[in-house]
Amino acid sequence: MTNALLSQKSLDMSATMSRIPKSDPPIALFALMLGSIFWGLAWWPLKYFGQQGLDGHAIALTAYALVALISLPLIWRERHSWRAEWRFLLLIALLFGIANFLFTWSLMVGSVVRSMLLFFLLPAWGVIGGKLFLGEQIGTRRLLAVALCLIGVFTIVGGVEVFKTPLSFADAAAFIAGIAYTGAGIANRKAFDIPMVSRTLVAFVGCTSVALLGLLIHVPSIPTLSVSDWSLLMLYAFIWLIGGTLLTTYGVTFVPASRAAVMQVLELIVAMISAVLIGGEFLSIGEIIGAVMILSATFIEALSTQPEAR
């Protein structure tokens, strides 16, 4: 998504929406699948904008800011509903903002495959965070998922060679983005009264806010873009970001969480295949082995039926 684009496509949202009856309508499944394809291909326009001289910071200050301007009035209109949990809303905005900001940048400057795999350590962080902050039970299957994720990423970044050279900026950004994204999901589950619109759109506000704060240490250069490039940037904001977000949000609301988690693995698969076929990237043996481990961990975690402590 890109960021996993990470706009607000949190699987944990479906857990917070327990008051909404769970059905499994074909339209919701289709929306979830289409949303995953959207996010899996999000690297494509981002790479194009990168070739035009924009970086992740500039994208956050333009495309995300445009969506944030539309989001703010909608979020404010629901203030009576989220007022009691405004701290959670701010935390969700901050964590999703960091995740989107860093992951966008990672996809633009790094290998799409490596960025996606490092970001998709979500099962490991979700299990650990769920135990620490939500009191969830960790059974053998979930421990196996964590182990597969961690061994997988160790393989992807080069095994023992990782201790000889530091992670690249793109690798580190994707890694941190995954942790922040998981934290936002946990905050989503701790909050009960924040309406879905605010939960969804606050990610754009958060990303824009993080980008504005980032101006204190980095001022991106905005190149002279053609009218067509500015038009493409606006289309990316209002069709790709908003469209992908609405599709995925609708899907995770009406599809059971375990099935939604499995289906959203499609995002990772689409990103990897498209990066090889369209982006001309190559998969090393280590990346292939790590990808299999992380995909396996995602399925194990998604299908886990461990009861949660309340």
Tell me about this structure:
The protein has 310 residues and is mainly α. It has one domain. The chain has 14 helices and one strand, in the order E-H-H-H-H-H-H-H-H-H-H-H-H-H-H. The protein has helices at 12-16, 26-40, 43-51, 56-77, 79-82, 86-109, 112-119, 122-134, 140-156, 169-190, 196-214, 227-254, 257-277, 285-302; one strand spanning 2-3. It starts with a strand and ends in an 8-residue tail after the last helix.
Task: Give the strand tally.
Answer: 1
Counting structural domains, the number is 1
Distance between the termini: 30 Å
Helicity range of the residues? over 70%
Could you tell me the strand content as a percent range? under 5%
Output the number of helix runs.
Answer: 14
Q: Which whole number gives the mean pLDDT?
A: 82
pLDDT under 50 segments (min length 5)? 1-22, 305-310
Mind telling me the C-alpha Rg?
Answer: 18 Å
List keywords for this structure.
310 residues; mainly alpha; 73% helix; disordered C terminus
